[in-house]
Amino acid sequence: MGAPKKDNLIIKLVLGVVIGLIVGLYSSEGLIGIIQTVKYILGQVINFTVPLIILGFIAPAITKMKSNASKMLGAMLGLAYFSSVGAAIFSMIGGYTLIPKLHIDSTVDGLKELPHMLFKLNIPPVFSVMSALVLSLFLGLAVVWTNSENLERILDELNNVMLAIVHRIIIPILPIFIASTFATLAYEGGITKQLPVFLKVIVIVLIGHVIWLGFLYFLGGMASKQNPWNLLKHYGPAYLTAVGTMSSAATLPVALSCAKKSKALHEDVANFAIPLGSTVHLCGSVLTEVFFVMTVSQILYGQLPEMGTMILFIVLLGIFAIGAPGVPGGTVMASLGLITSVLGFDENGVALMLTIFALQDSFGTACNVTGDGALALILNGIFKKDIECKKSRA
Question: 226-263 in b/e burial notation, b at 16+ Cβ within 10 A?
Fold first, then answer.
């Protein structure tokens, strides 16, 4: 998805928040009843598509990991997964440590009672989120094992179909869904008090990005026996491009150019790891999402999720991140099913997550892109001798 469309969506989401807050503060009980009905229907549509999005993106992603894949591909996928999970655990520890110190007052008590909806239109999903995940894993692996080209093409078509649904249905209704959610939250009377908290949380997350990138580049330097600064110092243009475009794909040419300027990284490793990392390595987005879900849980439900629940969420989130769609807030979009099924978020929680994630999406993308260089350094240390040996034989 091009950068202008992403910028346009961010503007629409922000307008949705502002309009929703204004409408909610000054709405009558009858109007809020109508808004609640709209919110419920849109939420049902989004929830209906979540399992289909999982199937449409996870299964095709697995089929592209052919059974004859190189060791480097397996290593890169493993590094991307453990980097994302590691970032998520780091964020979880930070959440349990810092969020209680933010003195967030639960908005559960003392709120104005919402009026009844005009009607409810239930749209149950075709199958559950976990069924979609297991089916995706089984289908993807079976296609790789059997080398079924026909089924692989079908899954690729399903991927294109789900992309069209996301772009033409889900993304256009998101601003309306978020506006209606913030209108009901403002009518209740609690959300306006928590807006400063979100600003603090965004600052904390940005600091977390810096710390995690420092850790990854430290590991990269240790593995490659190179000074990681010799690579990191070239990544300024890529970071700024990612902030401006909010797109790993749009940033890829710049990121590849930056990586190749460093003598610390073998050219073949850069050509392989940087493009692949832009697709499967989402450490910044995952770090952000984990801290945000904990914050939203404290704000809306009055408590942080249990640690066991968070660990399950993180383990599954690492898988979802690898196959996340390339749309605004792709990571949180792909993991909506986890947020609702594992963490138990309702429509209000989902809307808050989509909004706050979108507001910092550019910095999460920049962290992802910059982190790809660190993983390339680790691969450089692992496979440099093999690459040089093959070239000498040639």
Answer: bebebbbebbeebbebbbebbbbebbbebbbebbeebe
Angle of helix 236-245 relative to helix 248-260, nearest 10 degrees?
A: 170
Contacts of residues 238-242 at CB distance under 8 Å and 24 or more positions apart, as own/partner, are 238/369, 238/370, 239/366, 239/369, 239/370, 240/366, 242/362, 242/365, 242/366, 242/368, 242/369, 242/370
Q: Which amino acid is at 364?
A: G
Helix (H, G, I), strand (E, B) or coil at 325: coil
Q: Rounded to whole angstroms, how far apart are CA atoms 204 and 295?
A: 11
| Rg of the chain in Å (alpha carbons) | 22
What is 355-392 written as a DSSP string?
HHHHHTHHHHHHHHHHHHHHHHHHHHHHHHHHHHHHHH
Of how many residues is the chain composed?
394
Q: How far apart are alpha carbons 380 and 394 in whole angstroms?
A: 20
Count other Cβ atoms within 10 Å, centred on residue 221: 21
Tokens of 376: 């390339």
Q: Alpha-carbon distance 322 to 27, whole Å?
A: 42
Q: Give the model's pLDDT for residue 108.
A: 46
Q: How far apart are CA 129 and CA 345, in angstroms?
A: 14
Q: What angle do helix axes 283-301 and 191-224 make, rounded to 10 degrees?
A: 150
Please, what sign has the CA dihedral across residues 137, 347, 299, 326? positive
Could you list the mean pLDDT of each consecutive 10-residue stretch along the chain, which spans 394 residues?
Answer: 49 80 85 88 83 79 58 83 95 94 64 70 81 82 87 90 84 82 75 72 93 95 91 89 66 82 83 79 92 90 91 90 62 79 86 76 87 92 70 52
Distance CA 66, CA 349 (A): 38
CB distance 58 to 137 below 8 Å = yes
